[in-house]
Write a structure and sequence with these properties.
- The chain is mainly α.
- It has 9 helices and 3 strands, in the order αβααββαααααα.
- It has a 3-stranded antiparallel sheet with strand order 1-3-2.
- Strand 2 and strand 3 form a beta hairpin.
- The longest helix has 46 residues.
- It is globular, with a radius of gyration of 19 Å.
- The termini are far apart.
């Protein structure tokens, strides 16, 4: 019987553009609610508007982009109720993901959390907010890495982009309480390691729920600021 080889198919132009725009939203290159110009993106990538339009349609399925008929495409703009709903959903899923992951692969799960926690400490040491945000996202995603349930993983993926974008949008508010946040991340590792899920549930509700308060502060600070046009570089 002929040997089979697994190969990774190259990404389509639409997928490349979508990935780059997604990262731009997460990293704050686009402000929440900002209009995304198809023409500007097409020029930035050196492509026609068709793959750009398809990429924005793809991002609409994850909620990162909102396409309004005859008005254009915009970065999602949540209100407080939306943020609260995201936080409730997130805390519920992260708890379940942690329970499943620990049951199947305790050592791998705890090891991944500890490694990412160290990376977060390193990012703080050099005052790299972007790196810290990426590590923070990776830390919480690690709760699902060994859960063994693709439906749970895919459910979290539906909101992970929004969570990361909100984290960036509220970076100033979060950085003011970073020592508290880091202590909570350390406690999350301890709870998962010990299998103390009652304590983990309380901790996640507190840790994730603080996003709503930060959103209020960030929204108030952003009212006086106006977004500037964004031109993206094509991915290397």
């Amino acid at each position: 019987m002929a040997q089979k080889f697994d190969i990774e198919m190259p990404k389509s132009l639409t997928e490349i553009v979508a990935q780059r725009v997604r990262q731009a939203i997460i990293d704050g290159e686009f402000a929440l609610g900002q209009m995304i110009s198809e023409e500007t993106l097409a020029e930035s990538f050196g492509v026609s508007r068709t793959p750009v339009r398809d990429a924005l349609t793809l991002l609409q399925t994850t909620g990162l982009v909102v396409i309004r008929s005859k008005r254009g495409s915009f970065v999602f703009q949540p209100d407080e109720a939306d943020v609260q709903a995201i936080c409730d959903f997130r805390a519920m899923l992260e708890l379940h993901g942690a329970i499943l992951s620990r049951a199947l692969h305790r050592e791998a799960t705890v090891g991944a959390l500890q490694a990412i926690y160290q990376q977060m400490q390193a990012a703080i040491a050099v005052d790299d907010d972007v790196a810290y945000g990426h590590c923070d996202s990776a830390f919480h995603e690690a709760l699902f890495a060994h859960c063994g349930n693709p439906y749970v993983v895919n459910s979290y993926a539906l909101v992970s982009g929004k969570i990361a974008a909100l984290r960036t949008h509220m970076s100033k508010q979060f950085s003011n309480a970073r020592s508290v946040s880091m202590d909570e991340h350390a406690q999350i590792v301890q709870c998962v390691d010990a299998g103390d899920f009652a304590q983990l549930e309380q901790l996640l509700n507190l840790h994730v729920g603080r996003t709503v308060d930060a959103f209020r502060l960030a929204s108030a600070a952003a009212r006086s600021a106006s977004p500037t046009p964004t031109k993206l570089r094509a991915a290397a």
